[in-house]
Amino acid sequence: MLLGRFAIITFLIILILTVSSPQVFAQEKHIVIRQALIPPKVLSTENWNFTVNLHNSDAGFFLFGGADVYLRFYLDGQLWSQSNKFRIAYGGDIQYRALVNQGISLGTHTVRIEAWWDDNGVQRHQDTVTGSFFVVSLSIQDWTQDRVTVQRGRDTATNLIVRFRNGGNDLMSGIVLSVLDSRGLAISPASQELGDASPSGIKTTSFGVSAPASVSVGSYTVTFRIAYKNFRQGSQIETKNILVEVTNLATSITLNLPSSTKIGETVLLSSRLMDGNNSPAPGLTIRFLIKPSNAEQRELGTAVTDASGNAALTTKLDIEAGSYIITAQFAGSQLYAQVSTTGTMLVNPLTLTVITSTPNAPIVKLGTSVSTTDASGKVVISVPKVNTYTLEINQETRLADGVRAVFVRWSDDLPSNIRTVVMNQDLTLTAITKVQNLLAVKSNFGEAKGAGWHDSDTRVILDISSPIEHGNGTKRVLAGWSGTDGGSNVVQMDKPKVVEALWKTQYLLIVVSPFSKIAGGGWYESGSAASLTVNEKTIDQGNNTRRTFEGFHNLMETTIVMSSPKTVEAKWKTQYLVLIRSEYGSLTGGGWYDRGSPAKITVQKEVPMSGILGTLGGKFEFNGWTGGFTSLDHETIVLIDGPKDITAKWSANYFTPSIVLGGIFAVAISLFFLSRKHRIKKVALSKEVVEELRTYPQRNDSKTVSHAPNNFQ
Question: What CA–CA distance (Å, rounded) separates 199 from 214?
């Protein structure tokens, strides 16, 4: 009894505690998940189950029959599903199956299964298991084929390439590709085993497709069957279509033509037509077409293939020069497909070659087109069509500053620079030209000869009038040339040149002199020195008159720097001869005197007589001057205004000699008488003394004229 009461009390306490604390979880497991069966791989197209085995260790009071349990399923961390409650007996086991419908995305998923006990309203988490599963799907993706065209009646099959991809996420094994419906076409092989394909793996295979001649031309849809196995070895089948175009038997055509020719020439065009089985196609018409680059295509002619499939056309190309596309064309037939091929043929123009001696110059004109010669003076002109043209060589062409080309004549002696040429074949003409260089001549004075255009490498001799007098005592004298070799007047015209006359300035020195000859007058270069030289500084004009050089007006020296024209006047002075004559005495003051100058003339006042009379005291006394001048002074001044011839006048003074001689005579008389009386011997004068006394005379010199009595004994 006591034990029964204790059990009842304990149950009530537990019940009260449970009701009063509904959110309190158990701290220990009472419900355990013994096993959770999660399939590792499932097909997305199937339904499948989760199987969970649970055990109730001690949940729920045994008197009440067990515990109410439910399961929560989490997919990839999110609550996915929750089961209804089910009872597990105290100490009992139960197996729970959850049906999973389609719709879970492909790939790997994690699943968590939680066991919960609803303990009288208190939710108690009991146990958790986790696992993962992989959702699988298999399908054929990216089914493609190469475009295939099959020629009916062709002996060899056409290769058909097919590609597809394993569009699933699991291995696709045992793939078999087979023809389900060929639509009358021959497809080989009928079936192919392609092995396995990993996820996203690509399979490529090929079939040979042929179209019998009985098949019509058109489009055919061929159906293929693809069978493969999944991981459960279950077979999956898909069908796919491919498109096949059936055409007439193809043909191939070749074209043979010259790569280049000239306008007006005849050319051979040939072609060969073969069918798709590489057999000749005879009896079929081939058209030959031509198309210039800037015009529409036109037909040159047609030819029929022979037994070997060859066709040939000979035609004359009456066309302009240029690049042409030549086409050989087969239009097709009931059995054969059309075909064409092209080739390029260069139709070269005629060439007009003009040879000149002027290089790199735009001097040749054909029609309206101007051409430039090359480094050798030649120009080759393309003539695009047969025609008559006007050819012109420039009469004059400036090649550079101071350089020109000049037409002379044609080599066939045509003088005109314009001529007509008929271009029906290649033609070469020679124009004789020459290059000329310009010579510019500068000169500040005069007019130079030699300027102008001169043939290249010729020698030009320059000429200019020299000297050039300006009429004012100034003239220019050519000193040479600048721009020439060594300043000469010869210019080598190997290029355009500018030369200039170099001038020296000369000034005239005029020397004015009425007398004598003065050297040094004439023309002198500017800045040079002129020296004046007087040849005779004294000019005797006769009549006791002369001119004496005394210098030049306004000049201190006889050397002159010629900085301008100059006139120099010589200064002369007039001199007169003063002649002084006197029979006696010594004269001073005679000689040459400047006109207008004073001359002092002197003579002694008295002069002793010569000889015995002078000894005896006889003398001549000055008695004045005569000869256009009168003066009683023995020393006087004469103004010289002309030649002078002045004579001193004298008077004889015999007073003293007379007294002496008278005394002597008296003594002599006395002695004579005395001697006779006393026989005194007669004294005779010597012969020399007597002769001197007899001749005393007269004595003349240049200054003295004197006279003595001629009766002196």
Answer: 43
Rounded percentage of the chain residues whose pLDDT exceeds 90 = 42
Token look-up 């505690």 returns 17
Distance CA 553, CA 204 (A): 133
Contact 507, 565 (CB under 8 A): yes
* Cis status of the peptide bond prior to 657, with omega within 30 of 0: no
Q: Which two tokens stand for residue 148?
A: 């295939």
Residues 6+ apart with CB under 8 A from 680: 671, 674
CA distance 713 to 707: 16
Q: HSE of 88 in the Cβ direction (CA atoms, 13 Å)?
A: 26
Torsion, CA 209, CA 213, CA 218, CA 224, rounded to 10: -30
Q: Cα angle vertex 135, ends 133, 139, to 5°?
A: 155
Measured between alpha carbons, how far is 611 from 618 in angstroms, rounded to an integer? 9
Average pLDDT over residues 147-152: 92
Bond prior to 598 in cis (omega within 30° of 0)? no
Structure tokens at 210: 């042929």
Rounded to a whole number of angstroms, the distance between the first and last alpha carbons of the chain is 252
The 3 state secondary structure assigned to 233-287 is: CCEEEEEEEEEEEEECECEEEEEECCCEEECCCEEEEEEEEEECCCCECCCCEEE
Alpha-carbon distance of 347 to 322, in angstroms, equals 5
Task: Please give the Cα distance from 33 to 94 (Å, whole number).
Answer: 10
Residue whose token pair is 């077979």: 235
- C-alpha span between 175 and 152 (Å, rounded): 31
CA–chain centroid gap for 527, Å, is: 50
Q: Residue 702's pLDDT is what? A: 38
Q: Where are the beta strands (DSSP E) in 411-451?
A: 418-423, 427-442
pTM confidence score: 0.43
- Cα(652)–Cα(543) distance, integer angstroms: 33
Q: Which band of pLDDT confidence, cut at 50, 70 and 90, is reported for residue 691?
A: low
For 305, the token pair is 């293939």
In contact, 564 and 524? CB cutoff 8 Å: no
| Helix (H) or strand (E) run with residue 209 in it | strand 202-210
Quote the percentage of the chain above a pLDDT of 70.
90
The distance between the two most distant Cα atoms of the chain, rounded to a whole number of Å, is 272
Q: Give the residue, 507 or 282, on which the prediction is more confident.
A: 282
SS3 assignment for 481-537: EECCHHHCCEEECCCCEEEEEEEEEEEEEEEECCCCCEECCEEEECCCEEECEECCC
Of 166, 275, 269, give the one whose Cα is nearest residue 226.
166
- Phi-psi region at 612: left, alpha or beta (left = phi > 0; alpha = psi -120 to 50): alpha
Q: Kindly indicate the confidence band of residue 497, based on its pLDDT and cuts at 50, 70 and 90.
A: confident
Q: Please give the Cα distance from 528 to 476 (Å, whole number).
A: 15
Task: Write down the mean pLDDT value for the chain.
Answer: 85
pLDDT of residue 33: 95
Which residues, 6 or more positions from 366, have their beta carbon under 8 angstroms from its beta carbon? 352, 381, 383, 389, 390, 391, 392
Half-sphere exposure of 92 (CA within 13 A, CB side): 15
